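G., the chain you wanted modeled:
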Amino acid sequence: MYKRPTKKKDTKKILKWVYISFFCLISIWLIVSIVLQKNPTDILSSAFSKIPTPSDSQNKSLIIQKDSIITALELELSECRSRGSFAKAIVIIEGNSLNMRSEASLNSDIVMKIPASSEVEIMFYDTETYYLNGQAGQWCRIRYAGTQGWVWGNFLREI
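Predicted structure as tokens:
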């Protein structure tokens, strides 16, 4: 009478073949690395690095595009400098003075206090939009009395 093997024996056979296969793969991997005189991790990374990358011509066109943007911005900046000054603004606040800070953050050091209704030069605005007391705004890099710093842009009115 035929006796069917139990599932436990089938599972053991399968695991045995998995272990043997795994051992053979690792052995081949290590032998190839020895023959090629390369680091085993380099061999793995080169075997799985078939991800397409942009061609040199695509990279060159991207560089040319970015260079043209940089050139346009440099031209615009030089025009601002040739005028001798940046945009002007008036400090509009409810209190007596506006804090000029060393960085675009409420946690940064206060460089100086600018009196209300003072005229300042706007150098540029930060690209990020922040919220202060529920109002959206941007930090602004300014110059006042020969000192540069950051103020909350909503407290300025351009003139």
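Strands lie at 87-91, 97-101, 110-115, 119-125, 130-132, 135-137, 139-144, 147-152, 156-158.

Shout if anything looks off.
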